[in-house]
Design a protein that fits this description.
Number of domains: 2
Largest sheet: none
Number of strands: 0
Shape: flat
Structural class: mainly alpha
Number of helices: 11
Low-confidence stretches: none
Radius of gyration: 27 Å
Order of helices and strands: HHHHHHHHHHH
Mean pLDDT: 81
Distance between the termini: 54 Å
Length: 301
């Protein structure tokens, strides 16, 4: 046991030395972090400050990103750009940086799997599993983050519109009502609060209300947000009182939310049927397993 610990320590030191040598050998001379500004810069700074693991892995991710930029996967990068936007641009990642994250994750998975294979005497299949997990887990994380963010925006939009309508009824204009709602929002990290804050920030930078609203729908392309933006733009174009449009939109958004909840509840019975069948089969085997075995052997009577 003592010798195994020594071998494992030597292997870790050798692996670290090999990794450092590889980095020094293949690191480009012009490798540097891109200059980020605005929302992506804030995301990058907050993510690096809040995660020690990300800070530790960032040099390797940057190195892999340098080579990921050379990969001509235009369609894949466009798809990931949309997915990153839907996820709120986590860590300020660009498509190239996400590909670099995938490469770094797969290399780390392979390295750890090879270490365990050598230390525990396991088969080479573990290396394949490590590479598969290294590629799959970041994609699963990004997909889950995008779905959670868009669902959170849809969930909070009806209440936000109600508050905007109440504020406008109290005498504020649309922009002032949105600003009042954002200031009173309890969770500043909420995705809808962040998007409304970006909407107000873009207005302060000189964009028109139509442009800022269209950017909001671009960053959060859900059906409810698109309907809200289209109605608000059309109301401004036609001179229709916006407060009435927003009141109707809040009712429609709330109705769609209830319909979605009913649809999910209706599918729950079908989804739970398969696990219940396995549970029922396992219960039958536990209760009558010995009788079934004796029946197959002809020893029941």
């Amino acid at each position: 046991m003592h010798m195994s610990a020594i071998y494992l320590g030597v292997a870790l030191v050798a692996a670290a030395a090999a990794a450092m040598a590889s980095v020094l050998l293949f690191i480009p001379s012009d490798l540097r972090d891109p200059v980020l500004r605005g929302y992506r810069a804030t995301r990058r700074r907050d993510s690096l400050a809040g995660s020690a693991l990300l800070r530790l892995a960032w040099p390797l991710i940057r190195l892999c990103t340098y080579y990921a930029q050379l990969v001509p996967a235009k369609d894949w990068k466009e798809k990931k750009s949309e997915q990153l936007r839907n996820a709120g641009e986590p860590a300020g990642l660009s498509p190239d940086e996400f590909m670099g994250l995938l490469i770094a994750s797969s290399l780390s998975g392979v390295g750890l799997a090879m270490l365990f294979t050598w230390a525990l005497g396991m088969g080479f299949g573990l290396v394949i599993v490590g590479a598969f997990l290294g590629i799959t887990l970041p994609n699963m994380w990004l997909s889950e983050k995008a779905q959670t963010r868009l669902a959170s925006i849809n969930r909070g939009l009806p209440q936000a519109l109600d508050l905007v309508v109440l504020s406008m009824g109290a005498g504020l204009d649309f922009i002032g009502a949105v600003r009042h709602v954002v200031e009173k929002w309890s969770n500043k990290r909420d995705p809808l609060c962040e998007e409304l804050s970006r909407f107000l920030h873009e207005l302060s930078l000189g964009k028109t209300r139509k442009e800022a609203l269209e950017d909001l729908a671009y960053r959060a392309p859900t059906e409810l947000v698109k309907a809200f933006v289209n109605n608000a733009v059309q109301a401004e174009k036609r001179g229709t009182p916006l407060v009435e449009i927003l009141r109707i939109q809040a009712d429609v958004a709330r109705t769609k939310r209830f319909q979605t909840a009913e649809k999910i509840a209706g599918r729950a019975g079908v989804v739970i049927l398969m696990p219940l069948m396995f549970i029922f089969a396992a219960t039958v085997l536990i209760m009558f397993g010995s009788l079934i075995v004796k029946g197959f052997r002809g020893q029941l009577f």
